[in-house]
Design brief:
oxidoreductase, metal-binding, Rossmann fold, EC 1.2.4.4, branched-chain 2-oxo acid dehydrogenase activity, 9 strands, binds thiamine diphosphate, transit peptide
């Protein structure tokens, strides 16, 4: 056994060295510092007559002669960090706001903006002016709070319920509206469903519908950022922030992403919005373990669970997470933000088919991240009913203004349907485009293409 372990140890070490040499040759810079390896640099090891065995992640696991299966019931749930309670009262004696009153009010306005936009756009979908919408009601603090602690060069991957991240980063109401109405200003040229925003300038990758795909992508991007900084130290170190729901964490991609991020020490902050539901599947049906946070520990990742309705707790946790993510060359961090999805999943869902209305009403009455921050600001004397009224009215006006502007804009040229698949259009693409043009010309009364830039003419070769 001893020999076998020794040979495993040697071969692991050699593999690392070979890999390292290759990296050194390619990058001409030192290897990324490995974490969690201090006491088992060479992999699994056991010294003669040792009382313990050391494996990666199980450093100094002592031999014992009492057989005992560990039971999750014997371990208390990980605590939920909170700074301000439901009444807006500070419960963390060490807490001091690190931003000015004006900056706090700005965070509040961003939360208010997405919540008002949500209500208007949800109704617009019901009126048939929009094909689809998703609101983030009840989860505004997770998005706005965490985004407010990232650097503007950090890279973001999000799911679809994080409009607060976009707003906080500078995505304008017109940007939201252009995407939602798929007009000619939509950078995605109307090819995505509504709410699949993205912004190259703000370093936010475009949202994808297939659940959890963004999580391994985030690990990969974080690895790339780390290598980039190593190759050119004049580029400031950056992190990736990756948002997803508890449902996405039930996908295999989540596990692969956390493990690769841990083993490759990638500077990524995983931010899980645990809102209790994956459409109609409640978390009770999704897992039996201690939420999503316990999984982070399982992968050897620094983890915290926070009260997601408390923007201050989210901010404090994200600030620290960013610091940790950049420590020693990089490492992943997991934040599980506990909240509740007070809305239906999307405009395609009726949540009262699978949960009691009273439960939702209860949550709305008992806790809400916007009201909580408002109470805190009122306790501090920086906010009152008049300011609230003014902020709500002006935001509503602004949303409606951008709404009607974007709704009137023309759609992208029909031609764009055939573009960007290949760098240049293939003969097949061109033939299909000609067929479409012919068809539209033959049945002009059947198709109103006046809403599209250039109409039928955009299909000319
Ligand atoms: C791979 C894949 N499977 C299923 C779906 C359908 N789907 C869309 S959203 C969703 C629930 C996701 O829940 P969660 O990650 O908790 O986010 P939440 O909607 O609660 O914010 C599901 C199952 C999908 N988009 N992609």
């Amino acid at each position: 056994m001893k020999n076998r372990l020794a040979s495993v140890t040697r071969s692991c070490g050699q593999r690392q060295l070979r890999h390292g040499q290759r990296l050194l040759a390619v990058n001409s810079c030192p290897l990324p510092q490995r974490r969690h390896v201090a006491s088992f640099e060479q992999g699994p090891s056991q010294r003669p007559d040792s009382q313990y065995v050391s494996f990666p992640g199980a450093v100094k696991s002592a031999f014992c002669h009492t057989m005992k299966f560990e039971s999750p019931q014997n371990y208390p749930a990980l605590p939920t960090y909170r700074v301000v309670d439901q009444h807006g009262v500070v419960v963390d004696p060490d807490f001091q706001p690190d931003i000015s009153d004006e900056e706090v009010m700005q965070l509040y306005r961003h939360m208010l903006t997405v919540s008002i936009m949500d209500i208007i756009m949800y109704d617009a979908q019901r009126q048939g002016r929009l094909s689809f919408y998703i609101v983030s009601a009840g989860e505004e603090a997770v998005a706005v709070g965490s985004a407010s602690c990232l650097s503007k060069d950090d890279v973001i991957f999000s799911q679809y319920r994080e409009q607060g991240v976009f707003a906080q980063r500078g995505f304008k109401l017109s940007d939201f509206m252009n995407q939602l109405f798929a007009n000619k200003h939509d950078p995605g040229k109307g090819r995505n469903m509504p709410v699949h925003y993205g912004s190259k300038e703000l370093h936010i990758h475009t949202i994808s519908s297939p659940l959890a795909t963004q999580i391994p992508q985030a690990s990969g991007a974080a690895y790339a950022l780390k290598m980039q900084h190593m190759q050119d130290p004049s580029i400031p170190p950056r992190v990736v922030a990756c948002y997803f729901g508890d449902g996405a964490a039930s996908e295999g991609d989540f596990h692969a992403a956390l493990n690769i991020a841990a083993t490759k020490s990638c500077p990524v902050i995983f931010i899980c919005r645990n809102n209790g539901f994956a459409i109609s599947t409640s978390t009770l049906e999704q897992y039996r373990g201690d939420g999503i946070a316990s999984r982070g520990l399982g992968y050897g990742i620094e983890t915290i669970r926070v009260d997601g309705n408390d923007i201050w707790a989210v901010r404090e946790a994200t600030k620290k997470a960013r610091e940790l993510a950049l420590k020693d060359g990089g490492q992943p961090v997991l934040i599980e933000a506990m909240t509740y999805r007070v809305s239906h999943h999307s405009t395609s869902d009726d949540s009262f088919a699978y949960r009691a209305k009273v439960e939702v009403e209860d949550w709305k009455r008992r806790d809400n991240p916007i009201i909580r921050l408002r109470k805190w600001m009122e306790n501090k004397g920086i906010w009152d009913d008049n300011k609230e009224k003014e902020a709500r009215e002006s935001t509503r006006r602004e949303v409606l203004k951008e709404f009607s502007k974007a709704e009137k804009e023309k759609k992208p040229p029909i031609r764009t349907m055939f573009e960007d698949v290949y760098e240049e259009m293939t003969p097949d693409n061109k033939a299909q485009m000609a067929q479409l043009r012919e068809h539209l010309e033959r049945y002009p009364e059947e198709y109103d293409v006046g809403d599209y830039v250039g109409g039928r003419d955009s299909l000319k070769p």
